[in-house]
Write a structure and sequence with these properties.
heterodimer, A: 555 residues, alpha+beta, Alpha-Beta Plaits, Sulfite Reductase Hemoprotein, domain 1, Sulfite Reductase Hemoprotein, domain 2, 4 domains, six-stranded mixed β-sheet, five-stranded antiparallel β-sheet, 18 helices, 21 strands, 17% strand, globular, B: 357 residues, alpha/beta, TIM Barrel, Rossmann fold, 2 domains, five-stranded parallel β-sheet, 13 helices, 13% strand, elongated, disordered C terminus
Chain lengths: 555, 357
């Protein structure tokens, strides 16, 4: 993985000093709260319901064991002993003291981490496929490009006061495992006509109050022109995007109002006059960054593993874990292992300091010192030997980290909701917990197959409810927490927005209603048909009937 | 950056003005003052950058709602100065303007971006080699290899191995650092079967994942050596066909070639240094100062498989027609091209006179 050199180190260190200066000017009155707010946000510091929250960047979700241990240390020393992984592969601490923030940032800098641009109206942390470097369908590892984007977007003089936040996701396979088309800009790495890296560029995706799936704006931008093309997109939006209404400021609104063709013309006009050669990253620099992401020194192993097969036969619990959480790796004899942060009745994405330390140890010993944060709020050990999976499973299980539910119905994505968030209308955590408890039977979950349930506590959609196969949105109805259900959303390469099935439900009605929709799916599905495919074939009606039928009968 | 008390004479526009109107107004203007209505409204930065890129050379001044923390955003996107209010903290402006010693983006000021600073204009290659040799002069073979394989160099390495009697030393050192390093084996079609078996056994044992077999071009071979007996009449031409040309073709895209050559082997190799420049490519010789005894002791200690012919007195092993066993106590290299003045196949000698078809 990437390692800082003296320049990267200087930028992060100087950023901390800059923030220290800003904090002291806020204290002395040199900055008003209104002026200070965007500055602290661009350093990851939010003011939440009960306390400050610090969001730390995990660039493109890749960490080493030292970094993971430092995150654990911060949770232990400066917070309440836990952290929360987000859908943008960052980690949030919910209870730091504002006065500790500079110290925390210094601790992070020591392990080449930061909280720069994890919030605010700027270019945010770039995300990617959690299986980068492992998947056998990728064109090349997308992370060198993510690192180039990280550097280019860091403290950008032109793009630090944008109309609203700006998120980029990069994938390198036709399968989308990063919800790329829900981003302001989605990049799909392809081979250009010259055989070099090029990018299919999508623009105008986003969730929130007015969700949009990103549309294709360019079929193949050569890698050498990527930064120039992105500059043109950002420029067009920075000059034309709305600033009068926070809900209409994202690029998706501009693209939708101009239409993709007119927006493309606007971008191309800027692209034509840009000094493109200045924005070309030197070939040597691309090669230098790529070298950091070279595959780890894999051993030559047989495709199958006796230890894995024996454990699968001997222990049905391991077999279940292997079925659901161990994924094929392109290197024979290796696997990618998903560490679920969705225990039965737990808070999605939460992890304790001790658990972080354990994952760090396992990464160091079994996975070439690498651990990843996934869009689904799980962790991933990217390169483990099949031979080692029984041992890893045993140690994860001892720490409560071996829930065998990756991509199953209880692998719920959820935002922190009204338990923490000042924007939320409703709580999401207790509803997710109730659903997780109700659907705890793993045999039942496996019978259902892959289903993604996404839950947001308000219309800002941090829990991605629009693109959940089943989506749950918290709304405020005359001071009461209510929940709206959608079905048929999807964040993959066939991205789609879910359809609202009907009137919203009270908190305690959500889990039973979802359960009825799932039972209906088991009744109506064809051989091998997933829940999402069934919704696409049948529409929302059968599920609407299941959700409301009983309610109406009772009423 | 100029810190101004009052704005100069010039065209004055709010940053909410559409780009086309700003451009039209700027045409021929000596000074343009852009008024920020709110410090969060970052349009002014893009307006300035576009104007500068499209050739506006007049003065560009910011006025209105801007804060010290935007000083370098203003400067870097093309402003010359900012009008500060009466109660502005000029020290804060100066501190924030100088908050960063370096920058990633190439924008309107003349700062050299980090990417360029990391990759300065290419140095004279001889100077690079000199530096590498100087930096590693007290280092052992493993450290020399680590320096050569350091990903920070961004260079593509490959190891050249004959899988001969001593090949295990270099290859095991490489495998410890990165077993996926490409290993090139010139498969001349004339090797002892024992060498081929040894190649397989040693590669498996060390976990080498990228051993590349490089064969002569079939057309050239049919043309120059249809009966596979060129070695009798002209061993140089045979080496050229089977080793020199295939290697040259396979090295396209490789920047660093690691070899197992030792200074003691031949008179030509006596002055061998760890790093040398050879036909525009860096060659690394981590074992340059090793003796035959030290190599043998290493192989023994590591308990690596040995070449099956070692036990029969073969100490430097090439193709079967041109390799012989050597009596104990004599120079091992005498077993190569025995009876001829030839001591090198040519891959380490530089461009051949024979044209590459």
């Amino acid at each position: 993985m990437y390692r800082y050199d003296e320049f990267d180190t200087a930028v992060v260190r100087e950023r901390i000093e800059e923030f220290r200066d800003q904090v002291s000017r806020r204290v002395s009155g040199g900055l008003t709260e209104d002026e200070f707010k965007p500055l602290r946000l661009m350093n990851g510091v939010y003011l939440q319901l009960h306390a400050y929250m610090l969001r730390v960047a995990v660039p493109y979700g890749t960490m080493n064991s030292d970094q993971m241990r430092r995150l654990a240390h911060i949770a232990r020393v400066y917070d309440k002993g836990y952290g929360h992984f987000t859908t943008r592969t960052n980690i949030q601490y919910n209870w730091p003291a504002l006065s500790d923030v500079p110290a925390i940032l210094s601790e992070l800098a020591e392990v080449e981490m930061h909280a720069i641009q994890t919030s605010g109206n700027c270019i945010r942390n770039v995300t990617t496929d959690v299986f980068a470097g492992c998947a056998d369908d990728e064109i090349e590892d997308p992370r060198p490009w993510c690192e180039i984007l990280r550097q280019w977007s860091t403290i950008h003089p032109e793009f630090s006061f944008l109309p609203r936040k700006f998120k980029i996701a990069v994938i390198a396979a036709s399968k989308d495992r990063a919800a790329m088309r829900t981003h302001d800009v989605g990049l799909q790495l392809i081979r250009g006509e010259d055989g070099q890296a090029a990018f299919r560029v999508f623009v105008g995706g986003g969730q929130g109050r007015i969700p949009h799936i990103a549309q294709e704006i360019a079929p193949a931008v050569p890698g050498r022109d990527l930064l120039a093309y992105l500059t043109a997109i950002l420029r067009a939006w920075n000059l034309l995007g709305r600033r009068d209404n926070i809900h209409k400021a994202r690029i998706k609104i501009l693209v939708a109002s101009l239409g993709i063709d007119a927006f493309r013309e606007e971008v191309e006009r800027h692209f034509a006059t840009l000094r493109r050669e200045d924005l070309r990253v030197p070939d040597e620099e691309v090669a230098r960054i790529r070298a950091y992401f070279a595959p780890p020194p894999f051993a030559n192993l047989p495709r199958t593993s006796g230890a894995f097969d024996r454990a699968s036969l001997a222990d049905p619990d391991f077999a279940r874990f292997a079925r659901n959480n161990v994924r094929r790796h392109r290197q024979p004899g290796y696997a990618t292992l998903i560490v679920s942060l969705k225990p039965q009745g737990g808070v999605p994405g939460d992890i304790t300091a001790d658990q972080m330390d354990l994952v760090a140890d396992l990464a160091e010993r079994f996975s070439f010192d690498e651990v990843r944060a996934a869009y689904e709020q799980n962790l991933v050990l990217p390169h483990v030997r099949l031979d080692d999976t029984p041992e890893i499973w045993r140690r994860l299980a001892e720490a409560g980290l071996a829930t065998p539910n990756a991509d199953l119905v209880t692998d719920i994505i959820a935002c922190p909701g009204l338990d923490y968030c000042s924007l939320a209308n409703a709580r999401s955590i207790p509803v997710a917990q109730a659903l997780s408890e109700q659907l705890a039977d793993l045999d039942y979950q496996e019978r259902l197959g892959p289903i993604r349930v996404n839950m947001s506590g308000c219309i800002n959609a941090c829990g991605h409810h629009h693109v959940g196969h089943i989506g749950v949105l918290g709304v405020d109805r005359k001071g009461e927490e209510y929940y709206q259900i959608t079905v048929g959303g999807s964040a993959d390469e066939q991205a789609a927005l879910g359809e609202i099935v009907g009137r919203s439900l009270a908190a305690d009605e959500v889990a039973p209603a979802v359960g009825r929709a799932l039972d209906r799916y088991l009744e109506v599905r064809r051989e091998g048909e997933t829940f999402l495919d069934a919704v696409r074939r049948l529409g929302a009606d059968p599920f609407r009937d299941a959700i409301y039928g009983t309610l109406d009968a009772v009423a | 950056m100029q810190w101004l008390d009052t704005a100069p004479e010039g065209v004055r526009l709010p940053v909410t003005t559409p780009l086309e109107e700003v451009e039209a107004a700027a045409r021929g203007a000596e000074a343009l003052i852009l008024e920020f209505d709110a410090f969060r409204d970052g349009r002014g930065f893009s307006l300035a950058a576009v104007l500068r890129e499209r050739g506006y050379r007049g003065r560009l001044i910011a006025e209105g709602r801007v804060i010290p923390d935007q000083a370098r955003h203003l400067r870097r996107s093309g402003f010359d100065g900012v009008v500060l209010g009466a109660d502005a903290d000029i020290n804060a402006w100066k501190r924030m303007d100088a908050a960063f010693s370096t920058t990633y983006q190439p924008i309107e000021d003349n700062a050299v971006p980090i990417w360029r600073r990391r990759n300065p204009e290419p140095q004279n290659p001889e100077a690079v080699i000199e530096t590498l040799n100087r930096d590693t002069r007290n280092d052992d073979a493993a450290a020399i290899l680590r320096a050569a394989l350091d990903p920070v160099l961004g260079l593509k390495p490959a190891v050249l191995s004959s899988f001969g009697a001593e090949a295990g030393v270099l290859l095991s050192l490489v495998a410890r650092i990165d077993p996926s390093t490409p290993v090139i084996f010139l498969d001349t079609g004339m090797h002892f079967l024992q060498t081929l078996a040894y190649r397989k056994a040693l590669s498996e044992r060390l976990g080498l994942t990228d051993v590349r077999l490089v064969t002569p071009d079939a057309d050239e071979r049919a043309d120059l050596d249809p009966r596979d007996d060129l070695w009798r009449a002209d061993p140089d031409a045979c080496c050229d066909l089977r080793k020199v040309r295939p290697l040259e073709r396979t090295l396209i895209g490789i920047d660093i070639l690691i070899t197992g050559r030792k200074a003691y082997q031949t008179p030509d190799r006596r002055g061998l240094r760890p790093f040398e420049l050879f036909e525009g490519r860096i060659r690394v010789n981590p074992l340059h100062d090793w003796s035959e005894e030290r190599l043998a002791a290493w192989l023994d200690a590591e308990d690596l498989p040995t070449h099956p012919l070692s036990a029969h007195g073969y100490r430097s092993i090439g193709c079967w027609p041109c390799t012989q066993a050597v009596e104990a106590g004599k120079d091992g290299r005498l077993g190569r091209w025995s009876g001829a003045a030839k001591t090198e196949c040519g891959i380490h000698l530089g461009r051949r006179t024979l044209p590459v078809g």
